């Protein structure tokens, strides 16, 4: 893929002459975001709707200027902030008045102390937590990342929000666009779960099914960006990806704040593109750097479904490169066969002393049911993947059951009912009388 400069992305002020889009938006105010920096070679460019380094084609990410923050003042400001991700606005690429703008205000989801699940898994009491992101406005973690991309889209003058999606992102973009008054046109594989399709369509934007898998959808979107038909479009996870990705940091911030400004010892994080995992690591490092948490080691474990496990396979083989796979799993929200952040995930898992593991579809279903019957949390398949992987890692001794561990549930089981519907249903059907009730053996 060629480096994209996406010239003339602003409708009102088309980039003139040799000025790149990045130059024309140099003056945007995105809070502490100072520049875009290449994750491979460190080359810096001004903030703009670009995502690949002009020098080496490496991925760009946000570089911040946090100098001037006093730790205790910052902590107070965060704690006095709203009960959503905007409490962390001083650490995000968003304008200072972001909380006043129309958006769906995701975040500040529950961190559930999961003692019942801990008992089942052999983890010490009080040590196991589930960060339950099914509580977001569109019932997945994707609202966090879309919220950042939306602010970048506003700053750069885009009028249409778009994305390639494995399902949850399409719904999050649809909802955010509806509330903010953007047009949305999103692209998904045509054969997703009905819950995801309806959830993406109900907000009134355009929803296009593509005959192919997610990787085909993503390739198509990259083509559309380079075409006049895609002019003025902000693809949240393509040309706005550096901004989008930062939304995942809020998971790290919330987990630490909810633990009483403490780092967990171990985290189990799902991997689709791997973006979320890498930015959770970035968020934790920032909290240490800012003095908001005490510096100590933490381990990050990545979780995949066996039917789409390119990162896990590479991890176990000791490889640095991730070989693409053709996904075949019920965990469709994680079904990215060619994960963009795969190599960075490998690096983080190895550097922090974590690991990457996978579970098969039966284990995913068992884990969904385990979490539901122990903690009353109904996870989508991605949550089945993380809980299933946590169980497997405890059994293999890689996850220490005596340490503080956070397992992420990133989506809502109502969107993937089919995963558990086949053997989950009525216990009995009876006539409306006591005899019939007793016959069914249901009395106390
Ligand atoms: C998108 C998604 C993820 C993680 O995505 P990354 O591409 O790895 O950032 C995790 N869980 C759910 C439910 C998702 O929809």
Task: Describe the protein in words.
By secondary structure, the protein is α/β, with parallel strands linked by helices. It has 2 domains: 168 residues, Rossmann fold; 204 residues, Rossmann fold, CATH 3.40.50. It has 16 helices and 13 strands. A 6-stranded mixed beta sheet has the order 4-5-13-10-11-12, sandwiched between helices. Helix 6 links the parallel strand 7 and strand 8. Helix 4 crosses helix 5, helix 5 runs parallel beside helix 6 and helix 10 packs across helix 12. The protein is globular and about 75 Å long. The N and C termini lie far apart (65 Å). Bound molecules: pyridoxal-5'-phosphate. The site of pyridoxal-5'-phosphate (PLP) has 17 residues, from helix 10.
Lay out the secondary structure.
Layout: H1 21-24, E1 33-38, E2 44-45, E3 60-64, H2 71-79, E4 110-113, H3 115-121, E5 128-132, H4 142-156, E6 160-164, H5 168-180, E7 183-189, H6 194-201, E8 206-210, H7 214-225, E9 233-235, H8 241-246, H9 249-258, E10 266-270, H10 275-289, E11 299-305, H11 310-317, H12 342-352, E12 356-359, H13 361-375, H14 381-395, E13 405-409, H15 418-421, H16 434-439
Parallel strand pairs: 5-13, 6-7, 6-9, 7-8, 10-11, 10-13, 11-12
Antiparallel strand pairs: 1-2, 1-3, 4-5
The structure holds pyridoxal-5'-phosphate.
Pyridoxal-5'-phosphate (PLP) is lined by residues 140-142, 168, 270-276, 333-334, 380, 382, 410-411.
